[in-house]
Amino acid sequence: MELRHLRYFVAVAEELHFTRAAERLHLGQPPLSQQIQALEAELGVALFMRTRRKVSLTVAGERFLLRAREILAAAAEAADEARRAARGEMGELRVGFTASLSMTSFFPALIYDYRLHYPQVALTLREMFSEDQCQALIGGKLDVGFVRRADAEAPEGWRCARFAVIHCGWPSIGATLWRVRGSCRCLSWGTRGLSVIRKKPGPG
Asked: What burial letters (b/e) apply to 93-123, b meaning 16+ CB within 10 Å?
């Protein structure tokens, strides 16, 4: 049984008419009837009562309709969550920062903007020395780290840019940096400013 079979069944159950359901699904009516018959054969029960005048749900069909709708809704929600997670719009974001950064206008503005735009991401903030952040990023214990460029260079396999240390799996924090960059007066920090260290993509 595949999700498409559930979609076919739900369409027929809601239309109670094979031709209208086929038009709704952009299918031919004979193939749709065959798919429903195959589904009934797989389940071992009749889902519909068919006469020349009407199509109606059996008791088993009514029960199956409830579950089929739940499964399709759950599948759509799972697909949406996967896409949002890939865009860095949900989950947990572990952020490291040095003590002096919290005294600038940049970092509080960044955190505020991120929480505003990505409310389903749980932020975990950890005050750490720059070198400790680099090690935590390499070890997978941080997703984003804000370091003093004067204190730490990019670890092997990472490249430097301007503002922070960004793990490649969180594009949403990069978008937030660009939004906040233009609205903050304090973007320089320390003797050499902030750095972005973004993990280099693998081969291919």
From this structure: bbbbbbeebeebebbebbbebbeeebeebee
